[in-house]
Amino acid sequence: MCTGKCARCLGLSLIPLSLVCIVANALLLVPNGETTWTRDHLSLQVWLMAGFIGGGLMVLCPGIAAVRAGGKGCCGAGCCGNRCRMLRSVFSSAFGVLGAIYCLSVSGAGLRIGPQCFMNGEWDYHFKETSGAYLLNRTQWDLCKEPPHVVPWNVTLFSVLVAASCLEIVLCGIQLVNATIGVFCGDCGRKEGTPH
Fold first, then answer.
1. What is the model's pTM?
2. Which domain holds residue 132?
């Protein structure tokens, strides 16, 4: 596959993934769909905005850059082809890998530590000492009284962020290699008007 076409496909995959991360992070701010708990009782991992910043905006930029790298060259026909845009995509993809790693790290920590919730008469990270074992014991989830259903809410959304950020790391890594090849070798696509 030509580097330009590959870049376009990768970019078109990264853009929806980044939007999924942004939406998942936004939903984490409103446990059980209620804003009542947002002010004082959200976990630190939610406030770090890893889905919005890391897996979202920091991956959205490389996604757009990759789509643009798959378009016509910045210098017109013949000059540098799409090598200028591929070079920009190299740096954007590296930036995207960092953002996705940030999202994966924070979301993984959010899953391991668990949400802040009201249980046994106090607000705390009650599942912190279980090192993630609570994920396999759903009977413990109901022990959190407030916010209502916060454990399945957090587990589902942080799991989405972990899965999306893993895919983003892979796709940004592939685009990093693809764009580097594109910088040195150009696009293998034929120019318009070139005979077959």
1. 0.85
2. 3-71+81-185
